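BTB-kelch protein, Trema orientale. Tokens?
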Amino acid sequence: MGKFVHKHSSYSSKKLVFFISIAGLVGAAFIANFLRASSSSGYLFVSSNWALEKTSVTNQASRKESVEDKKGLVPERILSATFADLAAPDLQWEEMPPAPVPRLDGAAVQIKNLLYVFAGYGSLDYVHSHVDVFNFTDNKWGGMFDMPKEMAHSHLGVATDGRYIYVVSGQYGPQCRGPTARSFVLDTETKKWNSMPPLPAPRYAPATQIWRGRLHVMGGSKENRHTPGVEHWSIAVKDGKALEKQWRNETPIPRGGPHRACVIVNDRLFVIGGQEGDFMAKPGSPIFKCSRRHEVVYSDVYMLDDEMKWKVVPPMPKPNSHIECAWVLVNNSIIITGGTTEKHPVTKRMILVGEVFQFHLDSLTWSVIGKLPYRVKTTLAGFWDGYLYFTSGQRDRGPDNPQPKKVIGDMWRTKLSL
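Tokens:
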């Protein structure tokens, strides 16, 4: 009997040690996985598929889970769909001849079959001071010409009446240099530039459009590049000339900031998306080196009505900024390509947008109609003969990393059936 009890005790001890070892290994693996997922280099969402990969889209709802460690409950953060890619159908994209130079934060205006592409960063240390022209009829770039030496190099406000292109304010120089209030007008038929009355105060990336015979300039960032401006000015223009010597104060926009789409359609003025805050020059930096500040990206959409009063209309499907020249008009709707959304809440890194959005003007509703070849901000968009085109900007680091990386000059197009 004593021998039997000894054997049973030995067996139980070995069994207990075995289970403790297994539990320890499982627990260690669980904690290691948690720490890895919570690190600054990780993303707790699943990217959607792009033209470069053929996997299904997975969007995760915002939720919290808890795991135990030796100190108790530790929350695990799962990102909401705001930061992930929205479900969208694939579009068949065709690569076109790239722009002569890569550019970021440039501007573009389409007049008939020509896309005029202005300025922009080549890199943080180099800015362009010329215009490139793309001909949609023969799908070729050509006709490059210089901008005035006093004209801003990025963050421009641009608008056209069908012949003349008005270029307002913007940043002068590379990195995070200061803005200029200088404004100019281009005669696209003669390629000649003329000066306009300067803006009452310099602005970065103000929303700009021609409406009812007046050039309207709204919002943007103030002189420090970070503080949102809500001021709204206008000046009468005709045939490439200002009819007044000074800008007129108009109803301020309800929410200020740069990098918004501004569209005139059906005699209504829409201002779409944008952000509050932006990079600022590092204090004391001799080259105005950029330093990050807190930014808030939003999905707000405002419409100016007949009484010159702002109305709030349905917001975009997700917060979106850097879309000032990323829009086109197609079949009584506004199409917007790419942009940036709210920053990653853990790493605080910028997150790019890879969806194509449609705003239906009859119903004032939004839909997501497709995906771009990759996520990209500050696209320069055009539409011709049924094709949606976009070029330039800054693209993502890859299908699984939505952070910005390479400044590009790529051009793509896809056939739209809306």
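The CA atoms of residues 81 and 346 lie 15 Å apart.
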